[in-house]
Design a protein that fits this description.
alpha+beta, Jelly Rolls, five-stranded antiparallel β-sheet, 3 helices
């Protein structure tokens, strides 16, 4: 019976710890709009140090039309060169590749080209840290103050004109509604596990002492 208390307590403790670990993953990353520009080649804003931001470039009607009229020999994606200027004056040079689904017949229209891949030629690592695996422009600032992202117009050879919009988002981590319940349950189960285990250990020790005293008599 005493061993049962001990192992039951250990089981409760392990379940409680599992709940506590799981609660740390019950978070949702939301992208909140910071600023946006329309029919412009660049966007500029004061950013906070240590925060993660995402830049989304929304292609224009011209970009969509030119992408659709591309010849069969044209690559599946089209490049757009961008430079990000940091507060210190350093530059991060990258190429965002746009892809749009071409019309298969007269009943299905082509889709507006969107960014599907980003390749970085150079990074101002003093001012920001980029996410090379993210399908859009994503970076974490190492400095506060003003940053500017600008599309290089002169290298935009496959189309013309600025994009419809350039959107700047900040990533915000929010706890899910169930996180509080899971965290509370994990804490309670862990405490119960410790109490029951200690009770089992103390009961076992008392029993051993009684048996020892009995044999001495």
């Amino acid at each position: 019976m005493r061993k049962t208390f001990f192992y039951t307590g250990i089981l409760f403790l392990l379940i409680g710890l599992a709940f506590l670990i799981a609660s740390s993953y019950l978070r949702e990353i939301k992208q909140v709009l910071v600023d946006s520009t329309s029919k412009s080649w660049e966007i500029s804003a004061d950013l906070e140090q240590g925060k993660t931001y995402v830049i989304d470039i929304v292609s224009s009607d011209n970009w969509t039309s030119d992408f659709t009229r591309a010849s069969p020999d044209t690559p599946d994606t089209q490049p757009v060169d961008v430079v990000i200027t940091s507060p210190s004056g350093g530059e991060t040079n990258l190429t965002a590749f746009f892809y749009g689904r071409l019309p298969s017949n007269s009943y299905y229209q082509s889709t507006r080209p969107v960014v599907v891949e980003v390749k970085y030629a150079s990074v101002d690592s003093y001012s920001l840290q980029v996410d090379e695996h993210y399908p859009r422009i994503r970076f974490t600032t190492k400095q506060g103050r003003n940053y500017t992202a600008r599309i290089i117009e002169r290298t935009l050879n496959w189309t013309f004109g600025p994009p419809n919009n350039i959107m700047l988002y900040i990533e915000v981590i929010e706890d899910q509604n169930s996180r509080g319940l899971v965290l509370q349950s994990g804490g309670i189960l862990s405490i119960i596990g410790v109490v029951v285990s200690v009770y089992g250990i103390r009961t076992t020790k008392k029993l051993k002492v009684r048996r020892t005293n009995k044999f001495k008599k």
